[in-house]
Amino acid sequence: MTHPGQALRAELSATTSIEPFLGIYDCLSATVAAKYSPNLFLSGFGFSAGFYGLPDVGYIAWSDMVSAAWRVRQILPAHRLLVDIDDGYVDIHTARYVVQQLDRMGVAMVMLEDQARPRRCGHVDGKSLLPLVDYIEKLNAVLDAREHTCVLARTDASGPEIFRRVEAMSRTSADVLLVDGIDSIETLRQVRACTDKPLLYNQIAGGKSPRISIPELRSLGVRLIQYSTPLLFAAQQAMVIALDDLFDRDGLLSPPTQESFVGVKQCLALLETNV
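^ that's the sequence the OP posted. Answer follows.
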């Protein structure tokens, strides 16, 4: 069986289509997303919220993320999984070990960022960066450690520093590049002009980057798109609506009249697809 990383790398070389990666935060969200795309993204933002109930500011332990990726791979082995490994969990040795484990379990791609601790979500203020030489050293160590898995090199830089870092990342064997929290379409065009590497664009509701459709991104030369949090945010909204409705009705559950109704039967039907 071809490793998912090898398959993704071959596809990036052979086609110009855009591959959407849908953000997930647990096995249930992965099962829902799997009906819509063969590509899933285990988001640090979503995982930190779903597993710890905490914001994405560096709480994630590498062993928890590796375990979460393993669980998704067990139920959805035919899907390609992109895993957010933040800054590689601080040191180079841990970053290498984590990537080796994910590679062996069939993860298609990992994302390594250039933030320094304390880290932040890419779409909020207050981020600080590793010195470029330190990030490139860590990135090259990860690239050396992987066997089949693709590596997505991510910078959280802004202004002119974006282009210095993109050019440096382009000189490595990273498979894909991401400028997270990119502020405009014009900046995206400038990034496209300064590298030959495939680009990924990250869209997050309420984030810093402009909303751009898949046809528009294709015209801008983007190859991959990442929807980090639509399921997480939808789940939060739906839970609030459901509980408001429950207590507005004095504890009486809503009748199963809507086409989108989910009850025991519908939930079990979804989960049984993984058996």
